[in-house]
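Pipeline run #58 for the internal structure catalog. This entry was flagged by the ingest filter as a single-chain record with no existing model, so it goes straight to prediction. Upstream metadata was stripped on purpose; only the residue string is passed forward. Reviewer on rotation: M.T. Logging verbosity set to normal.
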Amino acid sequence: MSKLIKFGEDVEGYNIPVLNEREIRAAAGILFLMMFLTILIVIFRQNFVPLKYAVVIFLTDIVIRVFISPRFSPSLIIGRLIVRNQIPEYVGAAQKKFAWIIGVVLALTMFIHLVVMNAYSPITGIICLICLIFLFFETAFGICIGCKFYSMFFKEKAQYCPGEVCDVKSKQDIQKTSWAQLLIVCGFIGYIFFTVSMFNDNFSKKPYDLFGLETPEQAKLEKP
């Protein structure tokens, strides 16, 4: 029974339980997409029903990870199926568990506010934003923000971090960023602001129907 609900997997060559970072990132992408779409529905349609279901799903999934076993998490199972042909990238299970405990606290707070109390406030908005940031950084950059706080609460150093960021080492040439590259990024940001200031009025105009496929009824409905 202890093996069934054990947190992490025993893999030859690793002296602590580990998890597959590739399936974790895939699962984070799935949860991010679900939360992002339901939040958009709230913003544009004032419909909280999909978000309530999403919060329940999110909380259930992450509770299974922390209190039962990651191997039974639906999102991680789907993530495993998606990346099953990729070579695993093993990461320490301890820091992931700590990060997911933070997720449980956030999801539970959302569940109490939005589902149990049926209320929304700046608290729910801030928590939604934090969850999206955590999930996005995990799936897009492979950065576990929650894992960063692990060393603040535990004396032992985190092992087997994604991209080996736990190990202090010098950057390779391909990882270094030159001043010219930084200037290019700054210039690109300035270019975006310049484009918005110069062309925003033109961009705000509704495109015309090039092939005349729009019906008169649709045209009337879209007029202010």
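catalog note: Residues 25 and 139 are 4 Å apart (CA to CA).
catalog note: The beta strands are 18-20, 90-92.
status: ready for reviewer M.T.
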